[in-house]
Design brief:
The structure holds 2 protein chains of 2 kinds. Chain A is mostly helical. Chain A contains 15 helices and 4 strands. By secondary structure, chain B is mostly helical. The chains are: A mainly alpha, B mainly alpha.
Chain lengths: 359, 421
Amino acid sequence: MFATIRHWLDTRFDWDDLTAPLRHKTVPTHRLSYWYFLGGITLFLFLIQVLTGILLLLYYRPGANEAFESVQYIMTRVRFGWLIRSIHSWSANLMIFTAFAHMFSVLFLKAYRKPRELTWVSGVLLLFLVMGFGFSGYLLPWNTLAFFATTVGTAIAGQVPIVGKPMMIFLRGGPGVTGATLTRFFGFHVAVLPGIATVLILLHLMLVQLLGMSVPSKLEVQWTADPSLKQEMKFFPNFLLRELMAWYLALGVLGVLAALFPWNLGVKADPFASAPAGIKPEWYFLFMFQTLKLIPSKVWFIDGEVLGVLAFGLVGLLWILLPFFESDEPSHVKRWITGIAVFALAYIAGMSVYGLLAK
Amino acid sequence: MAFLQNKQRPFSAALAGLASFVVFAACLGYAQTKNSCLDCHSALPDPMGVTEEKFSQDVHAQKGLTCASCHGGDPTSDDPDKAMSRKAGWKGKIDRKQIPELCGSCHSGPAYIRQFNPSLRTDQLGQYRTSVHGKRFAAGDTMVAVCTDCHSVHDLRAPSDPRSTVNPVNVAKTCARCHSDAGYMKGYSIPTDQFAKYSTSVHHEALAVRGDLSAPTCSTCHGNHGAAPPGVEKVQNVCSNCHAFQAQMYEKSTHKKAFEAVSLPGCVVCHSNHDIRRPTDAYLGAGPQGVCMRCHKPGDHCDQARAQLLSGLSQLDEAIKSADQALSVAESSGMEVGEARLGQDQARDSLTKARVTIHSFRTDLVEQDIQAGLQIAAKNLQAGKQAMVERNHRRFGLGISLIAIGIVLAGLRLYIKKIES
């Protein structure tokens, strides 16, 4: 039957020609090949987000008077609603984690080097976008923690000189976090960000397909010197089947987390209540939040928080441009970039743990 | 005037004129506001000493009144003989017997008081005359409280000021200065343990510990300027100011008539007066905390009704606790039981309502509230149990899913092995 369908497609669309690149594509194999799966897992989790997000949209109602109740309804009345919502929440967190892990694996394997600079740029932009998804989606259940986290988060954004205040007003839909903010965040979460993300993901995947998989610089030098040492496997079906195994594993982990630790709904937001003591953002913003807390209120004549926000903005920009500081020659890769990567990883992990434990 | 004619320096001339005016105005102002009394009295020891700092805290001083407003005299004079001359109206130390009338000379005048505080009442002196203090004072007893005993003097603050001796938080301590002093109260046939008892009461806890300014203090029940014991027949009227529902129930109850027949003071019979504790269901018990059996005989109709009421309340209390426990277990398993949690508040409301309805002393009415609460608690308990059943289903489903995923993984692994061998 498959042969008949294939023949039918081939006679009409030159199916064999169309799929030829896929059949001829190869993936390098070495002891660090496992890191290649992280990007695929992140993509899988994004697809899970799209699917569960569409299902949640069937019942979710954006609005200060309805949002919490509609999520409660999904959790308690809708068949498998609890599972869909828990998977959406857990998958979001896992996706951000795997996106970070994917970025650091690319960094340590030096996979961002020429000619893959734009793959890195699109990837880092996607990471920022994924964090934007997290920030906007966190408010949607309209619970106390989300309300105050958004209040604090948008206030930090408001610290940016000149454009900060108008940007904060734009994000909030007014001077304070209200139902207008919820409606805006809903719009960003389900329309604006997915649109940009789809374009960037397609670009990222196209670049990966076009440029192939990178190999670690040492290996690249060896393989260039002696091509007989080169080891690779077919992308289809060998690598794809392995990737499929990774996706199934991710699905299992998601199932375990969603079933054993369903995502808590919390208490409905009360804009007139005082903020709960020791309120913290989601874990992926914790390193920045803790840093801002540690900066003195005045550094020389500059406001400490403004300085922190500007510093993070500058670091983010330099991070996007990182490949352009690297050498083109695999034999002359710059060690200081690896040093920065180690420091960044240690800083993010350390500050996150510190922020988690700090009162 | 020569410098005014100097056309070369018109600016300097204007400046000199302005400076002269300022100095003149300052001297005039100094003469008008000068209070020479404090020059000497701030250096004197108590009870004659009044420092400027102390007097500046006084609400009268803040409104522009001076020592002379009460004591007379001429505070603008630096000469003590002139400042404290009878000719200038100096009265010296105010005789204790004159204090209520002196204060009343301003505080009973609506037109005068209105210019300072239009909402301030002006019937204090009239009320005082009807109080036990006022009546005894009129009869010549100068040991009873007069205005300054409660409000203090020379640093008298508005009652809304937390430092005021008559701020709700401080009233009980102010009353206790006399009423808890056994030596001072020796000549009066009233107890002196009211403050000690009040300090253990639920009202004191609400006011002093929780800072609830609506909680009662001495003056809430006894009145302030017209302070007097509420009287046996009026006790429920006092309590009903806050405990309205209980009072309504009690008004229609058989106990009201029974208590009145033997001159028992309503609410106080079961709850006492100054040392009112937080009532518990044990009040309905037959144990040492039980109040019913102080009057009723074991085994009589009322004893049976008491036991029935207690049993109903205990049953509802237990039902609520069981539902709470079931919901907590479900919550700790990650189940969403927010609606049932909200329902628990309704069950607790029913229990509170049943406890209020006790004051009707009608088992049928209390039973209605208890049954309503039991139904809600049972529904919530069921929700908790259902959540646990649902949790088990989820875990079973997870197990099946993981087995399925495991089989697919094994199959993929075998297939990869096959195509690569």
